[in-house]
Amino acid sequence: MPKKIVPRIDVPHQFRIAQIPDVALRKAAVAAAAAAAGPPLGPLAAFSGTFAGKGFNLIFRPQSAATPTPLPSSVPDHNGKPGVGFGDNVLELNLTTETLDFSKPLGSIPNRGAVQGDIFLNGISYVQSISDVTGDTEIPIHFEPGLWLAVPATTNPAVAATVSRMASIPHGTTINLQGFATGPTAGPPVIPTVDPTPFFIANGQLQKFPSQVATASDTFRIPQDLGPFITAGTITQSILDDPNEILRDAIANQTIVETTTIHVASAAAGDPRVPVPGGGASNIAFLEGVGNQPNADVPVDAGGPAAGGNRPRIAGVQSTFWIEVVEHTLVLPVRLPGTRPFLLSGTAGAGLPKPRFRFVPTAAIPVRKPIKVRSVQIQYSQTVLLNFRGLTWPHVSVATLVPSAPIDVPSSAW
Fold first, then answer.
1. Helix (H) or strand (E) holding 26
2. Residue among 182, 206, 343, 329 at smallest CA distance from 264
3. Rounded to whole angstroms, how far apart are CA atoms 170 and 173?
4. Contact criterion met (CB below 8 Å) for 321 and 124
């Protein structure tokens, strides 16, 4: 069984950010700030408490002859094309468990303007912890402290209200993603496909690798043998082709009454896919090493530049969060008034944790009675574009998360 990860984040008691007034005005300003709710959070208000669930991670890792990755079966380095060494990378696949813990809102965060007047943000900090559960031993693989910010509309630059996600990643990278929220719209989300196939930086041509064939058991991949996972349906060829299939399967049998979509991104300046001018990624020196970008002096064949560079550098990040309101039909058992509280579980995809609902009988429940209740569910799909050896390698992570704590249902609901 996976280990229970205890959330460890919150803002200090009564800690709310506010602007600093003149000393003579401080007492009144502090009282006003304490009474104020802070700028509106908009869709970020749904990020409250702790969520937990399961997901999937796919990443192509650089492979160095100096530090080769141990594999159960040796693999010949068969070069399909000049400059494309199939042994220069390892495809790592992870079935994951995840905890995403949100703090209370931070308050009113002043951003001082020169041309435009001041604006005030509000934010929620979070900690994300992800563990690999592909094998018999659970192994932590990702820890991410970060902030979500609600940013009001501005005239300089002329940008509508946005949200921003800032994150610190222990491999030596920080990211700042910005984008828009849409909705809520009725019904479930429309989750698009995502293609994790690497492509050449020079011309965008796709380059498939043997490790992307699920039935191949002699490739540079972890796990090398996917036979048991194919049988279980947890890692299949269709999932390798489109990891977002896991998200669509998770909600196939749920009743989702409304969805809010948040899409944030960062990429090179001028990228038309990122309409917001802010954001970016920053790396430690190792990740900025020589050879990460295509070199004009390197020979080029029909497939693109020959291999060069051995360290992954983030070229861009895009992530979409779907905040879903799920409706559950539960059957209340017979209970006398004043009896102990009881829990009932809602619906969830196969193998995923189910939200729990807490009932405190204040009146008799004389017969079994069906009622409808609702919960918030978070799904996300994130693609990080890593550049090394002349190619861009999509690193895709997906997950479905539900509230960890029981959801109190008022007696008025029944």
1. helix 26-35
2. 182
3. 7
4. no
For the chain, the domains span 23-316+385-405
Q: Specify whether the CB–CB gap between 150 and 39 falls below 8 A.
A: yes
Tokens of 255: 């009743």
User: Any residues with CB less than 8 A from the CB of 170 and at least 6 apart, and which?
Assistant: 142, 143, 144
Q: Pull the structure tokens for residue 224.
A: 């090398």
pTM: 0.86
Q: Are 330 and 379 in contact (CB under 8 A)?
A: no
Distances (CA, A) of 121 to 47, 53, 110, 117: 16, 30, 6, 13
| Coil vs helix vs strand at 129 | strand
* Per-residue pLDDT tens digits of the chain, which is 414 residues long: 445 555 556 666 666 666 655 566 556 656 665 556 678 999 999 999 999 999 999 999 888 778 888 888 888 665 544 334 567 899 999 999 999 999 998 888 887 888 888 888 899 999 999 999 999 999 999 999 999 999 998 888 888 899 999 999 888 888 999 989 998 999 999 999 999 999 988 888 999 999 999 999 889 999 999 999 999 999 999 999 999 999 999 999 999 999 999 999 886 444 555 556 677 888 888 877 654 333 222 222 222 333 334 455 556 888 999 999 999 999 988 887 777 888 999 999 888 999 999 998 887 888 888 999 999 999 999 999 888 888 889 999 999 999 999 999 987 777
What is the secondary structure of 190-202 as a DSSP string? ---------EETT
Taking the C-alpha atoms of residue 54 and residue 133, their distance in angstroms, rounded to an integer, is 10
Q: How many CB atoms lie within 10 A of CB 211?
A: 22
C-alpha to C-alpha distance for 98 and 241, rounded to whole angstroms: 23
339 vs 334: CA distance, rounded Å:
11
Q: CA 376 → CA 2, 32, 196, 391, distances in Å?
A: 23, 32, 29, 39
Helical segments of 184-253, H only: 227-232, 237-241, 245-250
Q: Are the CB atoms for 259 and 323 separated by under 8 Å?
A: yes
Residue type, 227: G
Residue with tokens 């979070």: 126
Q: How far apart are CA 61 and CA 85, in angstroms?
A: 13
Q: Are 385 and 314 in contact (CB under 8 A)?
A: yes
Q: Which residue has the tokens 């994951």?
A: 96
